[in-house]
Amino acid sequence: MATTKAKDFAGKMTELESLVTQLESGDLSLEESLKAFENGIRLIRDCQNRLQSAEQKVSQLLEDNGALKQQPVAGNTHTE
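RESULT FIELD:
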């Protein structure tokens, strides 16, 4: 079972893919499967938050006299 705490989005996606593979294999006990599922839900929520934060950042890039200007994101949901 993946035990590393991935910090970046790609690392979390890799960890999630590993959990899915383990769950699909059917080799885990019920307790291990539940723990993997809980871990997967946590990773999915964190990835969704990161994607939402990135989407907000992109949407707040405004055209200002031909130059891009980035504005701070209000209510950032990113958690570490």
